[in-house]
Each structure stands twice: as structure tokens, then as C-alpha cells.
Amino acid sequence: MSRKLQIYGDPISGNCLKTKWTADYLGVDYEWIALDIRTGDTRTDEFLAINPFGQVPTAVLPDGRILTQSNAIMVYLAETNDGLLPGGPYQRAQVFKWLFWEQNSHEPYIAGRRYRKTYLGHDDSKIDAEWIPRGNAALALMDEALGKSDYIAGDVLTLADISLVAYTRVAHEGGFDLSDYAAVRAWISRVEGDLSINPVPEAS
Amino acid sequence: MSRKLQIYGDPISGNCLKTKWTADYLGVDYEWIALDIRTGDTRTDEFLAINPFGQVPTAVLPDGRILTQSNAIMVYLAETNDGLLPGGPYQRAQVFKWLFWEQNSHEPYIAGRRYRKTYLGHDDSKIDAEWIPRGNAALALMDEALGKSDYIAGDVLTLADISLVAYTRVAHEGGFDLSDYAAVRAWISRVEGDLSINPVPEAS
Q1: To the nearest whole percent, how much of chain B has pLDDT over 70?
Q2: For residue B6, what is the enclosing H or E element?
Q3: DSSP assigned state of A200
Q4: Gap from A192 CA to chain B (nearest CA, Å)
């Protein structure tokens, strides 16, 4: 058994990248094991023995225990490495607010359209038409919040920024136009800088 | 300004009841302010001055600061009242896993169908057909977990149980049949007992 934390993830998945960026930012000593969802890497007997649900990201602790759900892995990494999650309960609740909101009101539409368009090759007519206004409502809400502070939950980088930037920075791949959301665009650059990750090229 | 925590909520909303049950279980001294979403109580100038998004639940701290998002309010209540959230980071991550999963993979389908059928009066044909298999997949996954332990994140009641029971106990109002999920049904009774809440009558 490995003595190091392992994270299984597919780099096309924002949910996986969230956990990788968090581990990198916090200086965690871990092994990244890249799987390709599209070629069935998460359906092998070997991987199903680790996570019977066949989902990534999956984190395996040095003692063999398993963690799943991207935002829960991020919370674990922050709590065990003392960073990206403020100390006071009110400020923590602001971070959690955005993390829950991301899963309920952002990811389903912003990541959902990207996956269907870019990876499944679905035409717009095959995707629920409500996802466009709902995704735009999420972006507008972020834009308003980011007009008031440099980071989504206040003045410092937290898990909430890493979680939300993962799919927001590739929103154009799902057909969302960020040109109306200036504060969101400035924040994407800021967070990419903080995380030392390269900007995503816009489709030409 | 009130010197007591206030929670604004509509008792038809499982998301609101989650926060009420958590506060009750933890013995928090708070004021519950019942609003009726359907008659516009969350759209009044008075309420929009408190929460510009017009959403419940909304918690107002004694100093006037606002908390939103049901699961984030629950985390705040647990962290400030020392209960329902285990101490160790791995066990906490298990609770967070289910809380995030609830928002992403359970609530959209289980609560979504209930709201449309029971409160908007929508016919099945007007609701995304995918919501039935997705809701059942969520119930099946819970049933498997609850076949192994009395509570969803292990052997003790946590926030994850309160969050998940809120809409699971009224799943039949959304057209889901719990008769195949014996472990889920036993767990609903267990959690209702722990929270001292009455069972929901099944539709006759």
C-alpha cells in the first residue's frame, strides 16, 4: 500500500482538477493518477475495487481509506493542511455556502453543457433549454459578488474560488459567453495566477 | 436588532426544515419566522432587504450578518454548537461527502419532482423523464449505504442524515416509491425518532 495520498482523476474533469489544484496549492505530498473516463479507465476491475461507484475524483489516504466527492476531498485537504478555509465559523460558512451552491446551482448547468457539447458531441437541441438561463443566472450572481470583493467569499483565496473557477474558466466550451461578466473574467485571471495554471484558450 | 438567531423558513420546504431540525436538535435558542413562498412572502421589500435573493432558508445572526444555503447554515449551527459533525477530518469528510452529494445528486430529482408535482401541479409529462431514474439511483445508493450502518455517514446521527431525510421522507409526494428501499425506510423512522418529528402520512 502506498504511503502517500493518492488522487485518481481525469484532467478533462473540472471536479478532478479542483482537488489537484487544492493539493498543489497546499503543498500536499501526493501522487496523481490520471485516468481517462472516456476510454473506460474508471470501469476497470482494478479501479472498481478502489471505488465501486467508478467515479473520479477518488482520493486514497495512506492507510487505504477512501474519500469521494470533489468538494469534500477539498475540505479534507484544507482541514488537514491548514489553508484555504478560514478559521471563524461565519467566514467558513461563507465558503461552504458557495461550495454547496456550486454543486446545486452552477455545476449542473455550466459543467453539464460543457460535457454534453464538448465530450458527448450533443447538439444544443438535445440539451435542456433551461440550462442556458440557469447557467447565466449563476454567472450573473458570481459577477455581482465579485464586483464587491476580489475573491468569491471575501478578500482571500479559499476553496470556494478553486471549486468555482474549475468550470467557470471553461464555460465557453459549454456555449456560455463571459463577455458580459467582467468581474468574473478578472477573477478567473486572478485565481489562475494564484494557482499558477495557464489560461484556457478561447475557441477561435 | 434581535439578540437571538433568526431563521426565516417555509415549512413546506425541506431545505428550510433541515435548518430548523438542526437548531432544535442542538438546543439552539433561536426565533423561527415562518414565510409562505407561494403567497410571495419572500418577495416583499422587507424580506428582500434581508436577503436580496429572496430565498429561504435565511439565517440572521444576532449581529445582523446573514447566512444562506441550507447545508451551510447547518454546518454553521453544528460548528458553533458542537454537535452533529464529528471531530476527525476523515469522519467530517464523510459527512461533507453526503452533504455535497445531496445537493448535486439527490435534491434536484427527489425535491424537484415533489415541488413540481405537489406545489406547481405539473403533470409527469411536463417533468424531465430522466429525473425518475436519477432519483431512484440516489435512493438505491442510500439504501446500500444504510444496509451497512444505522446512519448515512456511519454509526451516529450527523448533519448528513438531517439533510438527506428532509426530502427522502416525502419522496412519495414526488412520485417515488420507497417500498423497494427497506433500509431507507427504517432509517427514516430512526431519524424521525431522533429528531422527535412525526412521520409524514403516505398518500392514500
Answers
A1: 98
A2: strand B5-9
A3: P
A4: 24
Domain membership of residue A201 (yes or no) is: no
Question: Across the interface, do A72 and B90 touch by the CB < 8 Å criterion?
Answer: no
Nearest-by-Cβ selection for B72 from A61, A93, A107:
A93
Q: Are B101 and B179 part of one and the same domain? A: yes
Q: Count of domains in chain B?
A: 2
Q: Specify the pairing of strand B58-60 against strand B30-34.
A: unpaired
CA dist A182 and A144 (Å) reads 10
Cα(A173)–Cα(A204) distance, rounded to whole angstroms?
11
Say yes or no for a CB contact (<8 Å) between B76 and A92: yes
What is the model's pTM? 0.94
Judged by CB atoms closer than 8 Å, whether chains meet at A72 and B97 is answered as yes
B129-175 residue pLDDT tens: 999 999 999 999 999 999 999 999 999 999 999 999 999 999 999 99
Q: Which of B53, B93, B101 sits opposite A67 (nearest CB)?
A: B93
Q: Which of A126-135, A152-161, B18-27 has the lowest mean pLDDT?
A: A126-135
A59 shares its domain with A93: no
Q: Measured between CB atoms, does A188 come within 8 Å of chain B?
A: no
